[in-house]
Amino acid sequence: MSCNFKPITYPNMKYTAFLLLISLLAAFSLFADKNPPLNVKVDAQSIATSGDMPLVSYADVLGQATPSVVAVYTSRIVSARESLTLPEFYRQFSRPIPRAMPEEGSNRERKERLGVGSGVIISADGYIVTNYHVVQGMRGREVDEILVRLNDGTEYVATLIGSDSKTDVAILKIEANASLPAVTLADSDLLRVGDIVFAIGNPRDLGLTATQGIVSALERNRGGQILGAGSYENFIQTDAAINLGNSGGALVDAWGRLVGINTAIVSNSGGSIGLGFAIPVNMVLNVASNLIKSGEVPRGMLGLFPDDLNREMADAFGLESTRGALVNQVQEDSPASRGGIRHGDIILKIDEREIDSAAELRLVVSQVLPGTKVAVTLIRQGKTMVLPITLGSLTGKVGAINTDSSALKGVILRPLDDDLRDGYTIPKYIDGVLVMEVEDDSPFVDKLEPLTVIIEINGNAVNSIDGIEENLVMNRQNRFYIGADGKKRFVILKL
């Protein structure tokens, strides 16, 4: 993706209780996994107000945090005959570094650097968190090596333990002979607008750099416009200067504790204009712990299609406030359906977590383990009620059909019907097969996006999974005519 950013804004949300997060981490240690459990330092105290003496320097604070921040370099092995056109690498603010063209006729392999980002050591035994978009493609052909450089100049080849595109989190592991300087983690749920923060990273590959600002907003969410459709955005917004290469670096508080991982900026030029975004550390820790334990992130699922309430809609339902999530549709045989949720219900709480919007409902439910029974507080025809619902698993979407096709590997499809059309607000003039999900290791992850409708293949209309298979031609370019966001366009896929 290009590093030219368009102005955008983000809403956001809150997380599960901090003590629950710690208890989950403790539970992970009961399992025997191929990876050692994550052992982190947590300081859950709130930032206190300053004393009588004015603070004139943060040097000591930064001295504690900066040794934990590392530079992350990615590269691939290419032959001299291979085109040097760099693949799209960083989505937010990574930095492609081209190399000189090889001599004509040379056939030697060489290492080509793709980009540079940042990371944070979160455990003394070598676990490092960074962004998914810094290391994406590690399991494919794009990235063959991840190199980590510590603050003292020591370099290690890192192993990618796991990554999650839905939250833009990845976790690496390096093997060092000695204990590494792990950062102390704060409770990001205690952050307040106005708290002093520092962004630490490797901007433009200049070396370790720290910038100061404040938390300018919390719970920024733009419905997937930063991380993509189906993602979970819940950003800390800061005016601390963040630039190309800071991706995956640390956002620390005035005590030097990690509160977030720097991820995105809003800028037309690619430089900082005071609108930077970081993933809260509580979310990062939850994702990282699951990736270490099982290589994936389990997420709860209700099985419904919610929408936000505007003032007009709230008045029509007799509500005093626009807070909550309106249920437009309930999927058949879903946890929501079995638990008694109906279309027209307005969901206000999941357990004790208040729900202000459809995006917040989706986020909160996703953070609860599948199989967990939750209390859903809702309003139905002016009456408040509480329904017990046992959550399903998001990894197995209700009604989703995996093609199991070598031609469209990793693409999860479903024939478009009225329920899907209404639930995802797909125009009636678009008909075909809906892309429900594209797995991270799919060769089509950069070509097809979730909620894209495949209308035609090679000039032939398709409305079923079999229809897609019948019209694909192997070992050649296939013309896909697709619809997304109410617009139609062609995409060429080589099988």
Runs with pLDDT <50, length 5+? 1-17, 83-105, 396-404
- Mean pLDDT over all positions: 79
The separation of the N and C termini measures 23 Å
CATH class of the largest domain: Mainly Beta
CATH architecture of the largest domain: Beta Barrel
Please, how many helices? 9
DSSP strand content: 25-35%
> What class, by secondary structure content?
alpha+beta
Structure description:
This protein has 495 residues and is of the alpha+beta class. The protein has three domains: 1-47 and 60-297, Beta Barrel (Thrombin, subunit H); 300-395, PDZ domain (Pdz3 Domain, Roll); 401-494, Pdz3 Domain (Roll), CATH 2.30.42. Helix content is 14%, strand content 33%. It has nine helices and 30 strands. A seven-stranded antiparallel sheet has the order 6-5-2-3-4-8-7. Strands 24, 25, 26, 27, 28, 29 and 30 form a seven-stranded antiparallel sheet that branches. Strands 10-11-12-15-14-13 form a six-stranded antiparallel beta barrel. Strand 24 (401-402) and strand 25 (411-415) form a beta hairpin. Helix 1 (18-28) runs parallel beside helix 4 (281-294). The longest helix has 14 residues, at 281-294. The protein is globular and about 60 Å long. It starts with 17 loop residues before the first helix and ends with a strand.
